[in-house]
Design a protein that fits this description.
Length: 76
């Protein structure tokens, strides 16, 4: 008997190397299109296109919460 487990893979975390396709700023949103391909956006441009683009995506990976995270401060 063979057991197959299906898993869904989360898209990779966006890094500082990922750039907005509109302006080149750091990308915080990945839009994976149902028709194939992906687009990367900064927070500003993601908000500008979300209403139109999001219904056409299979994944809308929004990491804009990183914009509000604070770096830990050293006690030294």
């Amino acid at each position: 008997m063979t057991t197959t487990t299906a898993t869904t893979m989360d898209p990779p975390v966006l890094t500082g190397a990922d750039r907005c396709d509109r302006c080149g700023a750091q990308a915080y949103v990945r839009a994976v299109l149902a028709s194939g391909g992906e687009l990367l956006f900064c927070g500003h441009h993601a908000r500008a296109v979300e209403g139109t683009l999001r219904p056409q995506t299979t994944v809308w990976q929004d990491e804009t919460s990183k914009l509000h995270e604070k770096e830990p401060v050293s006690a030294e």
